[in-house]
């Protein structure tokens, strides 16, 4: 007899995965989450928006790209979900939105309940760090389309911002200071180039390089820093004009999106030292500076644009919260682009 299981889909394994992840997902719960007994939908009490005069809903969707291939090769699956949250919810905070909730989607060749629970546990932990709720998700088994140990994940998030408090290019002024907010490492962009370097240089993920002091796989799987709470608190405490989430396209590409057409951000490359992992990749891969600049965050995971007179206070506040920050550059008359001095 032909069965769904014989075709490669194990429904019972999926049910075990759900049971294993429940406790981890519960840690991300917000008071506004409403239980749906059927489990078909995630519910969020929209009456929470009544505290806003004119609430604007913000939404974002993303994945983690080929960083999942490093996680699969190294056999470490408990942090890749944090990366997903960073890619999705930290896009929301750029306009000043408070992340409210998120859903995830995992496609895999074979449902291994423990592995799925680890992945979703990372998503739940990232949501907890961001102050958002993980209200639902889906795990799909795709035998034949993916290998048994292969998986991919994506997610979508929703946030809210008061209309007259929305941040962005229209608030930026000549003379503003640009702050760099430290990344935790490579985050989740540029991993196609990373994997190319690993193959070209025949580097093992188990290699302990002197520049890093730990296995290369651990360094490359360092989870993305979650900026949401820190950026929201900064905007509540001092005047903030704009943020830029530094993802694919690097610092110049992403910061340019947060500038009006008549202003430039001039950046001082000497104001910070990129983490050693970028020197390792550049050295072993022979990567030119221009390619490093447009591929990686190089140690700056988020940028903030603030009035120059509050820059020192903003840096101090962020560092008190455990987030290294510094004055990275300034806003001058220009053509709407970020550039190095």
UniProtKB/TrEMBL annotation:
It comes from the Bacteria. It is found in: Cytoplasm. It catalyses: 2-formamido-N(1)-(5-O-phospho-beta-D-ribosyl)acetamidine + ATP = 5-amino-1-(5-phospho-beta-D-ribosyl)imidazole + ADP + phosphate + H(+). It is an enzyme of class 6 (ligase). One of its GO terms (molecular function) is phosphoribosylformylglycinamidine cyclo-ligase activity. Gene3D superfamilies: PurM-like C-terminal domain, PurM-like, N-terminal domain. Its EC number is 6.3.3.1. Pathway: Purine metabolism; IMP biosynthesis via de novo pathway; 5-amino-1-(5-phospho-D-ribosyl)imidazole from N(2)-formyl-N(1)-(5-phospho-D-ribosyl)glycinamide: step 2/2. InterPro entries: PurM-like_C_dom, PurM-like_C_sf, PurM-like_N, PurM-like_N_sf, PurM_cligase. Pfam families: AIRS (PF00586), AIRS_C (PF02769). The keyword Hydrolase does not apply. Residues 173-336 form the PurM-like C-terminal domain. Keywords: ATP-binding, Cytoplasm, Ligase, Nucleotide-binding, Purine biosynthesis. Residues 47-161 form the PurM-like N-terminal domain. Belongs to the AIR synthase family. This is Phosphoribosylformylglycinamidine cyclo-ligase. It comes from Nonomuraea corallina. The lineage of its organism: Bacteria, Bacillati, Actinomycetota, Actinomycetes, Streptosporangiales.
